[in-house]
Amino acid sequence: MRYICRLLIVLLPIMPQAQAQGELEIFIDTGVENALPIAVVPFGWNRPADTQPIDLHRTIANDLARSGRFATMDEGDMPQMPVEFGHVNFRDWQLLRMENIVIGNLKQGETGDFEIEFRLLDVYKGTQLTGFRITVPRKQLRRTAHRISDIIFEKLTGVRGAFNTRIAYVTVKQDAAGGERHSLQIADADGFNPQVLLESEQALMSPAWSPDGQYLAYVSFEGDSSSVFVQNVRTGQRDEIAAHEGINSAPAFSPDGGRLALTLSKEGNPEIFVLHLSSNSLQRITHNRAIDTEPAWSPDGGRLIFTSDRGGTPQIYEVDLQSGAPRRLTFEGPYFARPRYSPDGTGITMVHGNNGMYRIAYLDIENGSLSILTNNRLDESPSFSPNGSMIIYATNGRYGSELAAVSADGRVHQRLALQDGEVREPAWGPFLSD
After folding, report:
1. Could you give the count of Cα atoms lying within 13 Å of 370 in the half-sphere of its Cβ?
2. Which of 54, 158, 34 has the alpha carbon at shortest distance from 150?
3. CA nearest 363: which of 390, 389, 397, 336?
4. pTM for the whole structure
5. Which residue among 51, 182, 211, 398 sits deepest, i.e. has the most Cβ atoms within 10 Å of its Cβ?
6. How far is residue 21 from each of residues 78, 111, 173, 420, measured CA to CA in Å?
7. DSSP characters for 18-51?
8. φ and ψ at residue 281, rounded to 5 degrees
9. CB of 188 within 8 A of CB of 206?
């Protein structure tokens, strides 16, 4: 594939002011039956109401609601608005069959920093389940709200929350001259704080996070040919790490961050290679006349899955890096592509194609069972959340190509609509360190 257009590349450091014009709106199409009822009460605030820098309670409630596992209470239905434990009338909440409530306070100190206190309460036991108090600068308020959501999610579901994470994606917009402008962007997992990492008049593809969340690998078609770059998401500094003759595509970081799996055609047809970043040495993994592409690492770093048409149609194969022996994993259909391991290594998400429909599927590796998770016409580029509970992907929607998410069991569906341009190639980032 070649893209013939004038080159325009703009490198941008990731700074708060370098924001994209559009933000993501989240629509929950389907949630889990018998979702846990929870009320997130507006936090107390020690200054005039119109000076509150962020609605902490609304950010937390939105996080929990979009997981599909919680039924959050409307503020207008709340029987009271307590901000202290001693002010809670648990009987009132019990009558409304509310199982848990979240209360808290936000205070701005003389230095300008903010003290946040929250409590998660069990309504029927009348006890506190968890909580904390922390002081943060203004720029950390939204991230702290996501951390609170993560704590609540884990306490009530037993699964680590993934609200305090980021996503990367590519947007495509028409410019005034009728051409296309491609942008590589990152945003919080709820779609807020979108930031432009790179802009180009030529195609950008396949963003892939490093395991520490500090770098993105991606494909750029500068000079009308494909190259793989690795870029620091904070400073914007980037390095071209693969620009061989032919195809350079589909980068994927190893779990230890020291290797990058790639598709290269420098020796003829597309094959899977592993680039050792410290030595810049290449190791060829596959040896077949077919097209081998889209590698992804197992969580232990010992195996790669990839797409290959060596059997006549695109299917998913797995190769053990010690033995080098590949094995076919998919059989139930004529088309499978873009595989990704679940974080625990027990399953694989991929695109399943049949009768002109391309949908997101999940394969249980142990028993070989395949589940079709979506019901759209054209879904692509699935990527697991770091806790394995959700899968983000691109699909056709009201605004052209947009983002959507589905739970790994297929019960929770969301649409994440970008208001300005089309959005493609999503990649969910790792857990952020505290």
Report:
1. 15
2. 158
3. 336
4. 0.90
5. 182
6. 35, 32, 11, 7
7. -B-S--EEEEEEE--TTPEEEEEPPPEESS-GGG
8. -100, 145
9. no
